[in-house]
Amino acid sequence: MLQAGDKAPNIESVDQDGNPIKLSDFAGKKIVLYFYPKDNTPGCTAESCNLRDNYQALQDQGYVVLGVSGDSPKSHKKFIEKHELPFPLIADEDKSVHEAFGTWGEKKMYGKTYMGTLRTTFIIDEKGVVEEVISKVKTKDHTAQILK
Predict the structure, then answer these.
(1) Where do runs of H (alpha helix) occur along 11-102?
(2) How much of the chain exceeds pLDDT 70, in percent?
(3) Structural domains in the chain plus CATH codes
């Protein structure tokens, strides 16, 4: 997994509308890049809606917000519409973005081990360098962790 001080990779994928999206599109801006497991699940919805509800405060601090999961653009579009999310979601169906950031890994639930998204947020500065990695995400109060 990337650490603070690492250069963020210039990932390329598509957003909820199927449009190409890459980190270099946001050069010169601070980025909140949050990885979450699945659209419309309780924790992921809480996290995304917390960022939505505090979006203006994040923008006031100069942040661009981008979400990433392995869901399809179609799934992302429905998730955005259902919850009125004001920021783009990156579709990472081939897990290339997850692999570049190190957020695809082994997880455990109910005694079973499986591969999945490690819920993580990267704060990236204007020069494309990771400022902070938040790995213990509080889904209902995530903005406070970012703006602390």
Answers:
(1) 42-53, 55-60, 73-83, 96-101
(2) 100
(3) 12-147 (3.40.30.10)
